[in-house]
Write a structure and sequence with these properties.
Length: 372
């Protein structure tokens, strides 16, 4: 009988877009893969290739009664499915899924893929989440972090044990899929921001910097790509987005399930984030496609950029500094920008190829399943 590996995430969108290559690699090694996520429009894509079990989960709030019921749901599902190893991603699976797995004595691998909006500033909620992490993660068999900053925060706060923890190069990137593509001939120079439309991703700073740069050169366009995350209190509403863009040099492109086309037709990709990132996937994908990138001195973001080599780093919440870095990129010769992109691609191949991440998981899964 095949050993069963469960992958548990807070949305089918996240599961499909962020974890499917790992799932295929696990499946190829002869394991049965089961995704456990809430149902959404991406669930049908998952069901075509893998086993799927729905779990009701509200990722946005912490409510003691709701979360106790969530813990019980995890226990029931894990008991019925009896997986040999469970991989947890995102906050609630990492907390309540881990507690449920330990009740049933199932090996757990956790992945702290960024700390999100809760850890942007100290609050009552962030203190509660830290306590819950500490209670649950002491029961984990392995904890992966996506950047050194988060690793240090958790180790120094004694939330995790250092000997059970390790830093991975983000989620990695599929360098065969995200490869350099030829840009169509255009008179317009395009700066592109790709992200969920959340204010902490630096949306306002991007708009403000665009207005500064436009005063210096009218040939530059500024594009935003990503879905309006209406469920988050920090999301940009449709009304707000309409007020931000002008349809002339600032444009909102909507959302896309395949961002390669938009990235390929841009000249530089920007993410002025102050969100507690893991390692932003869009920066990995853009650098892998040989695009110069601009991002902030922010945990996870700065890991992708060697400042002045494959892009530029700017100060957090500083549109003036961001505009300065945009102008620097614009004033480079085409050959200089192409070389910057090539160096970014080289960095991704050497440090962030997803095979590095996948092999780490496969080795651990092999170790844990051999003991059951």
């Amino acid at each position: 009988m095949k050993k069963k590996i469960a992958i548990v995430v807070n949305s089918s969108w996240h599961a499909w877009n962020m974890r499917f290559n790992l799932a295929f690699a696990i499946q190829k090694c002869g394991y049965k893969v089961i995704f456990i996520t809430p149902e959404d429009k991406y669930s049908q894509k998952i069901k075509k290739f893998f086993n799927f079990k729905e779990i009701k989960l509200n990722a946005r709030t912490i409510n003691p009664i709701d979360d106790l019921l969530l813990l019980l749901r995890f226990v029931k599902i894990y008991k019925n499915l009896n997986p040999d190893v469970i991989l947890h991603y995102t906050i609630k699976p990492n907390i309540y899924g881990t507690l449920a797995a330990k009740i049933l004595k199932i090996p757990v691998i956790n992945n702290i893929n960024g700390l999100g909006t809760i850890f942007i500033k100290e609050s009552f909620l962030s203190k509660i989440v830290k306590i819950l992490y500490k209670i649950s993660l002491k029961n984990s068999d392995k904890i992966f972090f996506q950047n050194k900053s988060d690793f240090k925060i958790f180790v120094n706060a004694k939330i995790v044990k250092k000997d059970k923890s390790e830093v991975l190069p983000g989620s990695g990137v599929d360098t065969k899929k995200f490869k350099p593509m030829e840009k169509e001939i255009s008179k317009k120079f395009i700066f592109l921001l790709v992200s969920r439309m959340l204010w902490p991703k630096g949306i306002q700073e991007f708009i403000d910097a665009a207005k500064i740069v436009n005063k210096k050169d009218k040939s530059i366009e500024f594009h935003l790509l990503g879905h309006l995350d209406v469920e988050s209190p920090m999301s940009v509403s449709k009304k707000q987005m309409n007020s931000l863009v002008n349809g002339e040099y600032i444009k909102y492109l909507g959302s896309s399930d395949d961002v390669r086309q938009q990235i390929s037709q841009s000249d530089c990709v920007i993410l002025p984030s102050y969100y507690r990132e893991g390692v932003p996937r869009v920066l990995l994908e853009s650098a892998s496609m040989a695009k110069p990138i601009i991002t902030t001195f922010n945990a996870g973001c700065e890991d992708v950029v060697d400042n002045g080599i494959n892009g530029y780093l700017c100060r957090i919440k500083d549109p003036i500094d961001l505009a300065d870095k945009m102008i620097k990129i614009f004033n480079l010769s085409e050959d200089q920008r192409l070389n910057m992109g090539k160096l970014g691609r080289k960095k991704i191949l050497n440090e962030f190829d997803e095979s590095i991440v996948i092999n780490k998981y496969l080795d651990l899964i092999k170790d844990f399943t051999s003991l059951r």
